[in-house]
Amino acid sequence: MVRFKNDDSAYVGRYLAVVADGMGGHAGGNVASASTVLDLVHLDSRVQEDEPLTVLADEIQAANSLLSELVTTSPQLSGMGTTVTALLLHDRRLALAHIGDSRAYRLKNGEFSQVSIDHTFVQRLIDEGRLRPEEAEVHPHKNVLMRVLGDVDASPELDLATFDVEPGERWLLCSDGLTAVLRDSDIEGVLRGTSNLQQCVDTLVELTLAGGSPDNVTVAVIEIDDDPDAGSAPSTAAMTELPAGQGRPRQATVSAAPAVSTPAPAVTEGKEEADSSGEDQEDDESLQERAELIRQDLSSRPHVLVGAASLATETGQIPIVTKRSAERRAARMLTHKADDAQSPGPAPEDTKRPGWRRWLLPAFLTVLALLLAAVMWLGYTWTQTRYYVGSYDNRVAVFNGVSQTIGPIHLSHVTDISDIPVDSLSEYHRNRVEDTLPARDLEHADQIVEDLRDTAKAVMCPPVDPAPGPTSTPSPTSTPAPTSTAQPDAAANSACGGKQ
After folding, report:
1. How far is CA 331 from CA 300, 324, 334, in A?
2. Which terminal residue of the chain has fewer beta carbons within 10 Å of its beta carbon, N or C?
3. What is the CA radius of gyration of the chain?
4. Mean pLDDT of the chain, nearest integer
């Protein structure tokens, strides 16, 4: 039987190339691929609002959210998914975003390589050393995907990379319908040996069909141009499309890199696949208006759009995709028209806007610095209303401030040094002084010093012995012993209140 339902979608323009392969084993594979591609085509522009790789990743994540919304509104689409391999060109650099088992190949300076990595179960086994590459071709689970866009993951993990490009190098994007039949060496031989891009894609598709491809086949070949005015855009070539049930391709020349979407023969079991897009509750006129809006946007730039995405825009047979994409596209088109209307002469407020942007950041930083300085000054002023008693040069002293430092800045200074040695205090009071004793004010600090003075007196002045009583008269023959005339220490005498 012939598979009339194409789950592949592809877009190639001057700055953007996308290949998406919907999961045909689930309802809505064509919806998933078409929705994703149509949601990305607006990136086909020379100028991007942010870093191209960031923009590409963000838009693919947004497309994934759209798929979740579609499942919410149409539960019959539950389980749908799609692969995505996309290239975005900007200033001689190419941003790559990839998820699934569609592939990206590169031919540069005579070197051919597969740039993308398949997110499949067998590829994981190969990476872990549990399976040889030649065994993967016949593995029963070789088509099991580990990562795709769809309603299974709110934030899918993308492979992201950026490459410097040179004029003349070629890139090939394809769905797994190509790689399931042709080996990498076959693809490399065709890409190297064919100078004409149209002939290149024709040959790849013919070889795939001759090998009995079991799936849809989508191929896009891009060659980097050396025309500076084209911004390294893909070269002009032709697009070939092979409709289901026909043996020869029909050709149409377009100004973009070629993309080929071929519903290949496939054996199906049971009843023919039904359209999984769901029933649309609106009339045909409204659907056609949305499709026309998308077509107008696409007609503003050279491009090739094929597969399920092309069907959605041409016939509106996937109304959910057309409706959702049209709403976003309408908003962008209105924005672009407003920008174009203002481009001949900037309005007065537009001329002021850059000035505001220039001084807004310095003004914000200045205000922030002033606030920080004010807070620091108020904090320092508050510390100077505080007092404490501590040790200074082994003397009990009164300090104004707090006993902390901020880097080299001391938040206190000595206001009064007493004559009380710290060593003259008891061990308990000495430790307290060394740890500082906080005071409510200067008067309280002086009171603490006086209390410590009393403590020092108690330690330094032992109890006085009572006066000696009368003694017997010494014997005339005895010689009187000399008496001690030592004087007490001056500091001790002062502390005890004695006299010399």
Report:
1. 16, 12, 5
2. C
3. 44
4. 75
